[in-house]
Structure formats: structure tokens, C-alpha cells
Amino acid sequence: MNFGARAALRLEPRNLWTVDLAPPAGSILQDVYEGLSQTRKQLPPKLFYDRRGAALFGAICGTRAYYPTRTENAILERRAAEIAGEIGSGSAVIEFGAGEIEKIRLLLPSLRPTIYAALDISREQLVQASSRLAQDYPWLAVIAVIGDYGSELESQLTLPAYARRVVFFPGSTIGNFEPEQATGFLRRVRALVGDTGGLLIGVDLEKPVRILDLAYNDPEGYTAAFNLNLLARLNRELGADFDLTAFEHDAFYDVARSRIEMHLRSRRAQRVRIGSRVFTFAAGETIHTENSYKYTPQGFGEMARAAGFPASRMWTDPDHLFGVFFLHS
Ligand code: AVI
Fold first, then answer.
1. Which residue has the least CA distance to atom 7 on ligand 1?
2. How far lies 208's CA from each of 117, 138, 233, 311, in Å?
């Protein structure tokens, strides 16, 4: 196996390799200055996921209100044989943003790929989760690729030509991309998997507003804590002086744009110091922290077609809350 200039290292167990394609760790300060200097202040959602943010996201996924995780898991579990039938055995599966490597486990016994490459930026978590997977599935070649799937690192990935390439992108993370970014992402995947490969992707579907509003305003308050942790992170990592009690979580569904918007709303007029700069907030002004787009099956199918995937099949749950799509040419 070849990964551009970087050699893959073989680890224990013997069916596990790792390769480091991570960019040098940079400061988040530039992103923060840029976002907060806009007329409508914003911060990129990737900043949510420090250690505490990742733990809070895990807690959100376990709530009753946040239906996507359990619904997608149930679809993968119940439809594993059909999904495997569509993809065929012996493929090379590449998961983007693999995290704890849990969802692919629901498919492996039916899917029987030869290679599973897990991409994630969080080194320690990825190597540990890959090692557990390699131990549990000794027949599978597991490759832990430390890198950012958002940075077009697929040009550095050379997988064996004989295996059908299938990108696995569960979790409805595509919903956090702006529609043009999402199309660009699908095009990149299409180039990576080629004419014979495909994309297995989880997509959150449009649904009644009350279900969506509740999912992003869970009664336990984990989503609010997850949103506010972003400011706590800026205090921890950049020495900023955000008063966390002076901001509140605000999440609502915008029907016209088919998206949940998350904001942090300033409860009063205030000034906040970050590094060498001071930012001024009016009472009620917000920092826009995330969009989460919801798609209709038709709308997503059209986007996929425009990106070079003319064929698709979707599996859903009885309430049509969530769709798992297999896109191919
Ligand atoms: C990761 N992503 C798909 C989640 C979502 O639903 O958009 C992030 C999230 N934000 C608030 N709750 C969950």
C-alpha cells in the first residue's frame, strides 16, 4: 500500500497499519479573528470538537431528542445485508471522519471488505479505535490514516486498483456543509472512487419543525453546553475573556433554507478581549456557529447526480427521519 511520499507503518496486531498525513497543528486564532470580524459574526463549526466538545457531542447523540444517531444506526443494522448486496464483497472501504469507528462494525460481517481505511484528524483516538477493530476482525486489513479529509488528502492515497473503492461518510455531517461545499465534496469523492466505486452516506431528511427544534434544544441541555463550549475553548486556548453567563444558546429551523441554524446570543452589550484584539457585541447580537441542512430524498439525489453519481439507492426508517444513500455511477 502506498500513501504518496509517506510510508505506512505496520503496527500490532499484524493486520493494522498507520500513516500520518496530518498538517502541522496551527493556531485557531486566525479563524477566530476572521469569523468575528465579519458584519455577521460567525465561527467555524470545526472549532466545536476539542476534547470536551467531542464528549458533549457524544452526550447529545445519546439523548432522546437527538434522533439522527440512533436512527442511522438502526438503518445500518437492519439493512446491512441489503447494503452489502448493493456494494459487493472484497471492496476497499474508506471512512472519512471515522472517530470511534463504531458504525462500520454494523456492516462488516455482511460487507466483508478486504481493506478498511479510517481517516481522522484525532491521532490518539484513531489509533486506539483502529487497533481494537483490527483485533476484532483479523481477516481485515485496517489502515489508520491520520489526516484532515477536508484538505483534499485523497490525492495522497493510493489504494490497490483491484478493489472497488467505497467511501463511507455516516453521521449526516454533509448537512454541516453549505450546499455548494457539499456538491464540491461529492465531486471529490467521485474522483477518488472512480467509475466502479461508490459513496455510502448518511443524510438527515426534512421533517416537521417541532422534531428538529427539539433535537437541537434537548431538555438535558447538552446542545447548549456544546455550543457554549466553543467560547470556553477560546478562553482556555487563546486566553480570551468571554463571560459564559453573558451568552445563550439559540437554535431554530429556517424552513425557507431547510436548515437548523445555531447561534450564541449576547445577553447584553459587552466587549471581549481575544489575544491582542477586542470585539464588541450589541445586546442580542449573535455569533453564527453552525448550519445543519436537511434534504429531501429527491433533493439529495439531484445534488448527487450533479456531482457525477447518476445512480442512487436509499434506505430509511419507518418515520422517514433519516436516509442512508449508496451513490454510484
Ligand atoms: C455532526 N453534525 C452532523 C451534527 C448535526 O446534527 O448537524 C452536529 C450537531 N450540532 C448540534 N447537535 C449536533
1. 292
2. 37, 44, 33, 28
Residue 247 CA, ligand 1 centroid: distance in Å: 20
Question: What is the CA(41)–ligand 1 centre distance, in A?
Answer: 20
Minimal CA–CA distance to 174: which of 281, 309, 280, 50? 309
Asked if 292 contacts 263 with a C-beta cutoff of 8 angstroms, the reply is no
Task: Please give the radius of gyration of the chain, using alpha carbons only, rounded to the nearest integer.
Answer: 20
Beta bridge partners of 322: 204
CA neighbours closer than 13 Å in the CB half-sphere of residue 302: 7
Tell which residue, 263, 328, 267, 260, has the closest CA to residue 291. 260
Atom of ligand 1 lying closest to residue 260 CA: 7
Q: Within the chain, where are the H helices?
A: 29-36, 51-61, 68-78, 80-87, 108-111, 123-136, 179-193, 209-215, 222-238, 297-306
Distance 37 CA to ligand 1 centre (A): 25
Please give the share of the chain, as a percent, with pLDDT higher than 70.
97
Whose alpha carbon is nearest atom 5 of ligand 1? 292
Q: What is the pTM of this model?
A: 0.96
> Tens digits of per-residue pLDDT, 3-36?
555 678 888 899 999 999 988 878 899 999 999 9
User: DSSP letters of 229-282?
Assistant: HHHHHHHHHH-----GGGEEEEEEEETTTTEEEEEEEESS-EEEEETTEEEEE-
